[in-house]
């Protein structure tokens, strides 16, 4: 959520930002009008209450002075004031609810470092690391490799749950499990994160805190009876761990990492990404979340990107870092970088991590603050998150990069201790 005071003082800047974000329909003007009406009501109510307080003192004086008619007239006026205040209080509640709704539907402002661009075609490749493997045979896509090795079962996944579901079997399941365990250990033991195991279902206000609700309700799975939502990412529960809290500034930065299943309604264009396991309604992800002081948040973003890229390096898979332009920023991010792995069978770069700095946008929605020093006024923290990394795309890149001419898969060295010493996946 944006700072209403900033919006009030800089309306043209906010509107210009919405234009470059492609969000000209964001209710900025509506929010400012509602804010103006809210402040006018508060001024009216304050004035009426002052009049009522003064009148209450005068009534006794008038009665004691024998000025009964004036006292009764004043009494009638005080009753009228009470009715006016009640009416204004009712209007205020409606205005504040409308203002809150408008504010929740306004995206974050882009950081000055974000390149201006209309859509993903104008994103900027910041750097590329690693050299794609040269094959002396035609590399196969993972859907052919997985089927031939009997480690991915598409038909039974569809039989159980419908399109966009699949089964991992045997070494395929072990490979995914090994990736998750290894990535967690890397971030905990070498990058300084504390592991969290959060609930996979959360209350509505938790999704409001991270910016998923109300705008993206159609992309989420919801249990109406209990009013619980399946999480689209571990970012949601982990960020909200400190909801409505004031943290001791000495505790910052806080680094958390969590593995969860994730659930999203994938709404794909016809004919796009229809093969394989690239997109699904359920997937696994290791997520990194940071809570930091505002003055350190951009440096912390660079560290976050490096933590995610370190996974790619240690797996020996070429990857690149891409900065999102204004037209491809998420609703909540002030600045965002994607990390993409090269998949030689699919012949494409696969996004395996999005690393974002939300500045104070999520913290305002979830009311997460910190005290910079003892006795100091609380301020909003800055929150960041990034995948570290997301499956199944890492699995795709591993299968396709480490395939051999006979259809087998060489297990990357870093994963072998997590797979019982297995070095090769064969049919």
Summed up, the helix count is 12
The averaged pLDDT comes out at 94
- Helix/strand-derived class? alpha+beta
- Give the neighbour order of strands across the main sheet: 1-11-12-13-16-10-9-4
The rounded distance between the terminal residues' Cα atoms is 52 Å
- Say what oligomer this is: single chain
Low-pLDDT ranges: none
The shape, in one word, is elongated
SS strand fraction: 15-25%
Described by strand count, sense and barrel closure, the largest sheet is: 8 strands, mixed
Number of strands: 18
Compressed to H and E, one letter per element, the order equals HHHHEHEHEHEEHEEHEEEHEEEHEEEHEE
Radius of gyration: 28 Å
Can you walk through the features of this model?
The protein has helices spanning 4-9, 11-21, 28-64, 68-104, 142-148, 154-161, 171-189, 204-210, 235-239, 297-315, 361-366, 393-401, and strands spanning 124-129, 152-153, 167-168, 194-196, 201-203, 222-223, 228-230, 245-248, 254-263, 282-292, 319-323, 335-343, 348-357, 368-371, 379-380, 382-390, 409-410, 424-425. The protein is of the alpha+beta class and 427 residues long. The strands form five sheets. An eight-stranded mixed β-sheet has the order 1-11-12-13-16-10-9-4. A hairpin with a 7-residue loop joins β14 (368-371) and β15. α3 runs antiparallel to α4 (68-104).
List the helices and strands and how they pair.
Blueprint: H1 4-9, H2 11-21, H3 28-64, H4 68-104, E1 124-129, H5 142-148, E2 152-153, H6 154-161, E3 167-168, H7 171-189, E4 194-196, E5 201-203, H8 204-210, E6 222-223, E7 228-230, H9 235-239, E8 245-248, E9 254-263, E10 282-292, H10 297-315, E11 319-323, E12 335-343, E13 348-357, H11 361-366, E14 368-371, E15 379-380, E16 382-390, H12 393-401, E17 409-410, E18 424-425
Parallel strand pairs: 4-9, 8-14
Antiparallel strand pairs: 1-11, 2-3, 5-7, 6-7, 9-10, 10-16, 11-12, 12-13, 13-16, 14-15, 17-18
Helix pairs in contact: 3-4
